[in-house]
Amino acid sequence: MSEPPLALRGVCRTYRTEAGELPVLRGADLVLAAGEIVALVAPSGAGKSTLLHLAGLLERPDGGAVLIAGRDAATLADAERTAIRRDAIGFVYQFHHLLGEFSALENVALPQLIAGVARRAARQRAAALLDAFGLAARRDHLPGRLSGGEQQRVAIARALANGPRVLLADEPTGNLDVETADRVFDALLDAVRRQGVAALIATHNPDLARRMDRIVTLRDGRIVAG
């Protein structure tokens, strides 16, 4: 039996502030299977972003293990963690963070070029991803000429460009109107299921959360069923 793409085992994280120690995670456990889409729903300040940062290897836990395909990345050197982030993890944020001087296609090709993919192959995959998101006619447009929903679909395509095992999304539709958010979320779900990616998606939208495979929340620094 293969290892799950993402597993958090007893993860702890405490921040040191001028007012003293602030425990945020107190032994969080979570396992994501390949192709599973999990909603993370919790109040502001409960630690959603911290959990995503730890799962995405942007921070190190103070205790516990962050396992990517069975490998404890919490103990690895920075260079190895960077390589895992590049090759195995995709990120989508509330704001698209596209590079304004590059076209949609170039934005999606860039992570592949950084990973060492040949330019022609990177552009071909970028074009295929944009086509799948209904953006074939917009691939040469700069972000400033795209609508908010189009920009976010480009951002999702970029997150999937290197064929990650894990997709982490922090309020990916939080900056969009309801109708646009539904369309973007449909595209996200379809792409994740088609590629068999394990996805953890933080959202304040209960309607979107119910469309995922299961819902979890943070309570007293631990993950529980929603």
UniProtKB/TrEMBL annotation:
Gene Ontology cellular-component terms listed: membrane protein complex; plasma membrane
Keyword ATP-binding attributed: yes
Domain ABC transporter span(s) in chain numbering: 6-226
GO biological process terms on file: lipoprotein localization to outer membrane; protein localization to outer membrane
Domain of life where this protein originates: Bacteria
Gene Ontology MF term list: ATP binding; ATP hydrolysis activity; transmembrane transporter activity
Gene3D superfamilies: P-loop containing nucleotide triphosphate hydrolases
Keyword field: ATP-binding, Cell inner membrane, Cell membrane, Lipoprotein, Membrane, Nucleotide-binding, Transport
A Pfam family per the record: ABC_tran
Family (UniProt): Belongs to the ABC transporter superfamily. Macrolide exporter (TC 3.A.1.122) family.
The name this protein goes by in its record: ABC transporter lipoprotein releasing system LolD
